[in-house]
Automatic annotation (TrEMBL):
Gene3D superfamilies found in the cross-reference section: 3.30.300.30, N-terminal domain of ligase-like (3.40.50.12780)
Lineage: Bacteria, Pseudomonadati, Pseudomonadota, Alphaproteobacteria, Hyphomicrobiales
SUPFAM superfamilies to which the protein is assigned, alphabetical: Acetyl-CoA synthetase-like
PROSITE patterns: AMP_BINDING
Protein name per UniProt: Propionyl-CoA synthetase
Family classification: Belongs to the ATP-dependent AMP-binding enzyme family.
Keyword field contains Protein transport: no
Residue intervals of the AMP-binding enzyme C-terminal domain: 516-594
Limits of the Acetyl-coenzyme A synthetase N-terminal domain: 5-59
This protein's record includes keyword Protease: no
Domain of life: Bacteria
PANTHER family with a match to the protein in the record: ACYL-COA SYNTHETASE (PTHR43347), ACYL-COA SYNTHETASE SHORT-CHAIN FAMILY MEMBER 3, MITOCHONDRIAL (PTHR43347:SF3)
Protein keywords: Metal-binding
Domain AMP-dependent synthetase/ligase, first and last residues per copy: 63-450
Source organism of the structure: Mycoplana ramosa (Mycoplana bullata)
């Protein structure tokens, strides 16, 4: 196939509005948009401002009407419970209709917010679609977050209803959701009116009378009643969901997603980037709590008429490092998307890929990796053992779909390991120095995207236009700041090297070290602290905390370290994965009092480092090195 990337990118550059207006043809509109982009409205403009449509209709109803009623829409595969289920598009429609009826009955209406705090079960996906159907705005909270994080989100979006389950299942441990939900509602200033509780047989939860409603019973009643709930005609600019992601403070940012632009962008990406045909099986091995799950477990594949796989398991240990190959064989997966960390975990257990030949993985055409930097070593290993293109691509919660990648659907470009290849249509990507001047090819700088962002990207933060402007748009006028640092080479290939803020990427999960520092500092014996991300062979990065205790504290420092580890787990959740905490006498600082986190990280990662000229007391770095050495970290 002739490579169509250059021509397609040039076509977009020549007339972005015409490009996206044409792409909008992939969507069934209730009212087709006459205007592609209105730069006068919103923070930086709005896509398809006069269009009307419904995301659930486009994901479900129209496929049923167009002959896909009997095609599997969703395959639930759960090695942690031993359950598997197939739902056709027609069956999915029935489930979504029933949940939509239950929500309507509970008084949920267009524009109301619904928090979904659920594990990887089909009911979670159906609940998302049911919200979309009636115009309610869903906000999913990842199961690995603690009560406090759930409470922050309930308060910020003022959720009317919480849809939850009695438990999640982690290998070797059943995670009870009910105590977390109760604690969150207790902490939150805003109280949701009702909670819909899906009881799972592994651990049932007692219902709170007057507040909790049994999910399964309510859905069964709705099905019996046979009520149909039609898809509400929504403005393209109406919100579909809010997804909270780590910012530089403990207060997460509510990334807002609209309906129209989101559908257009995802539908375009499925065909032209991932190169997937309707009817094929697409598997994003992530979690619906993350943006990858929103875009490529749920909305993207369903918009495109694919069969999506919902996998409640891990790459290793459920039961072994052959789990992914088993799923590919059993469900004839065409395209797999996961985070590099999953492949590092598999490789650690099965370095030669000896489990692969035990399965028939011939259906697999390509592997896509994102969520964190794909280290060339892991990428090349995956290429070798799978013998299919392995495609690194780069994006973030804010953008909702890839900013850069090697577009399988347009024809693959030559691979440069370590680079997610080229910008996709929609994204004019530049690298600027701190003063906002473009840098020469090959020079490291701030990676920015020229405004307006394309359809599908966030129009703003939930109820926080000013925070959006201040965080993302103010530093480099005319650009969106990705907060990633990197460079573009002479051939136009992008290299993503680091974050410019305090975000670290732990097993593909985006976490704020600032948020962890806030928790560490709240321990009564801690005077000051620093949390940094250090290199980890499987997770990419893991957090490490340094504590300076208040003078006069006589308790064992190891005890305080354990308490701080427990506190972070309790306040942020197990997903924070802060396990290394050391007490030190002092923190290294510049003369102006800035903690030298970068230097500490280099020491921990055994990278070359130079004594900062502004350091207050060089001897402190030796103390840090010694403290790390006691934990087997650094040189
Ligand atoms: N609910 C409750 N707890 C959860 C959870 C959830 N949904 N997800 C993770 N956790 C817990 C884990 O059980 C673990 O707890 P522990 O400290 O008691 O062991 C902790 O959070 C850290 O989890 P994780 O970072 O996932 O580490 P892990 O050691 O359990 O697994 C991998 C490591 C690589 C196998 C795992 O991260 C993985 O499957 N990654 C795949 C990629 C992925 O999904 N990325 C998401 C973005 S694309
Ligand atoms: P999230 O919002 O959780 O998807 O995290 C987004 C961040 O993960 C990005 O801003 C990057 O820092 C990092 N990231 C995602 N994909 C890649 C990639 N392919 N290469 C390097 N970093 C990536």
């Amino acid at each position: 196939m002739a490579n169509r990337y250059a021509a397609t990118y040039a076509q977009w550059q020549a007339d972005p509005s015409a490009f996206w207006a044409e792409a909008a043809g992939a969507i069934d509109w209730f009212r087709a948009p006459a205007i592609a982009f209105d730069g006068e409205r919103g923070v930086y403009g709005h896509w398809f401002p006069d269009g009307e449509a419904n995301t659930c209709y486009n994901c479900v109803d129209r496929h049923v009407a167009a002959g896909r009623a009997d095609q599997p829409a969703l395959i639930y595969d759960s090695p942690v419970t031993g359950r598997k289920r197939h739902f056709t598009y027609a069956e999915m429609l029935a489930e979504v209709q029933a949940i939509a009826a239950v929500l309507t009955d509970l008084g949920v209406a267009r524009g109301d917010r619904v928090i979904i705090y659920m594990p990887m079960v089909p009911e979670a996906v159906f609940s998302m679609l049911a919200c979309a159907r009636i115009g309610a705005v869903h906000s999913i909270v990842f199961g690995g977050f603690a009560a406090n994080e759930l409470a922050t989100r309930i308060d910020d979006c003022r959720a009317k209803i919480v849809i939850t389950a009695s438990c999640g299942i982690e290998p070797g441990r059943v995670v009870a959701y009910k105590p977390l939900l109760d604690a969150a509602i207790e902490i939150a200033a805003h109280k949701p009116e009702r909670c819909l509780m899906l009881q799972r047989p592994e651990l049932e939860a007692p219902l709170v009378s007057g507040r909790d409603v049994d999910f399964t019973a309510a859905v069964a009643r709705a099905k019996q009643g046979g009520l149909t709930v039609s898809c509400v005609s929504l403005r393209a600019t109406d919100p579909l969901y809010v997804l909270y992601t780590s910012g530089t403070t403990g207060q997460p940012k509510g990334v807002l997603r609209d309906n129209g632009g989101h559908m257009v962008a995802l539908a375009w990406s499925m065909k032209h980037f991932y190169g997937v045909q309707p009817g094929e099986v697409f598997w994003a091995a992530s979690d619906i709590g993350w943006v990858v799950g929103h875009s490529y477990i749920v909305y993207g594949p369903l918009l495109n008429g694919n069969t999506t796989v919902l996998y409640e398991g891990k790459p290793v240990g459920t039961p072994d490092a052959g789990a992914y190959w088993r799923v590919i064989e059993e469900h004839r997966v065409s395209v797999l998307f996961t985070a590099p960390t999953a492949f590092r975990a598999i490789r650690k257990e099965d370095p030669s890929g000896s489990l692969i030949p035990k399965y028939d993985v011939s259906s697999l055409r390509a592997l896509f990796l994102a969520g964190e930097r794909a280290d060339p070593d892991t990428l090349q290993w995956a290429e070798k053992v799978l013998q299919v293109p392995v495609i690194d691509h780069w994006w973030q919660t804010e953008t909702g779909w890839p900013m850069a990648g090697n577009p399988l659907g347009l024809g693959l470009l030559p691979v440069k390991h370590g680079s997610p290849t080229v910008p996709l249509p929609g994204y004019a990507i530049d690298v600027l120095d701190d003063a906002g001047h473009p840098v020469a090819p090959g020079t490291l700088g701030n990676i920015v995207v020229k405004l307006p962002l394309p359809p599908g990207c966030l129009p703003t933060f939930w109820n926080a236009d000013d925070r959006f402007r201040a965080t993302c748009l103010a530093e480099f006028p005319g650009y969106y700041k990705t907060a990633d640092a990197g460079y573009i080479d002479e051939d136009g290939y992008i290299f993503i090297m680091a974050r410019t803020d305090d975000i670290i990427n732990v097993a593909g999960h985006r976490l704020s070290t600032g948020a962890m520092e806030e928790v560490c500092a709240s321990h009564p014996d801690v005077a000051e602290c620093a949390v940094i991300g250090i290199a980890d062979a499987v997770k990419g990065q893991i957090p490490a905390g340094f504590l300076v205790l208040n003078s006069g504290v006589s308790r064992e420092s190891s005890l305080i370290e354990r308490e701080v580890v427990a506190l972070v787990r309790e306040r942020i959740g197990p997903v924070a994965a802060l396990k290394t905490v050391v007490c030190v006498k002092r923190l290294p600082k510049t003369r102006s009092g800035k903690i030298l986190r970068g230097t500490m990280q280099k020491i921990a990662d055994r990278q070359e480092w130079r004594m900062p000229a502004t350091i207050d007391d060089p001897a402190i770095l030796d103390e840090i090195r010694e403290a790390l050495a006691t934990r087997g970290i650094g040189a």
